[in-house]
């Protein structure tokens, strides 16, 4: 008898749960449901577009960088997309990675020359251990120290804190009158800011705010250095 009543109750309970769920969804505004599926920019990062203050540019940007205190996040320069990292055995296995092209190496040297001409002081230089990022760091800044905190690769649901160390780096004030440089990839930057992706050879200028927060105050494309040099001469 009890078993018969239990079987009879199942459809009723199922119907009640369906009605409750429908009512809950109906109470949520449609825009909120749509927005829930769109990854928001992490609150730790504030882009120039979100900040009331205008982004730094031209002479003002150069003056700020000469004073130090910023983090220069550089995505490696141009690479050969006919190559990939699928068969690499370790980070030193350059022949089985995507590497810089000759054009990418020239771009890196040009960026380094511009930094020196503009007299922008560079202190610590950290690089993802991949060959293309280490080579970019050395060609641009003259040196590079391997840092797993800035390594590449996409964040996945099972590793939600993959870029926690990078967030700390970007939010920690830079000591002295120098700038910290990071040579890394597009994925880590996207992972901590929500996008958009940096182009190859593009630098994001980060103003660390402390307590896990930072502002993106400028983005310098690989072909943007001539304009900055011209701005200091005008």
Task: Using brief descriptors, characterize the structure shown.
234 residues; alpha/beta; Rossmann fold; seven-stranded mixed sheet; 16% strand; disordered N terminus
Top-tier CATH class of the largest domain: Alpha Beta
CATH superfamily of the largest domain: Phosphoglycerate mutase-like
Structure class: alpha/beta
CATH architecture of the largest domain: 3-Layer(aba) Sandwich
Q: Indicate the percent of residues in helices.
A: 40-55%
Total number of β-strand segments? Answer: 7
Q: Please count the helical segments.
A: 8
Range of strand content: 15-25%
How would you explain this protein's 3D organization?
With 234 residues, the protein is an alpha/beta fold. It folds into 2 domains: 35 residues; 189 residues, 3-Layer(aba) Sandwich (Rossmann fold), CATH 3.40.50.1240. Helices cover 40% and strands 16% of the residues. The protein is built from 8 helices and 7 strands; from the N terminus they run ααβαβαβαβαβαββα. It has a 7-stranded mixed beta sheet. Helix 5 links the parallel strand 3 and strand 4. Helix 3 packs across helix 8 and helix 4 runs parallel beside helix 5. The chain is globular and about 50 Å long.
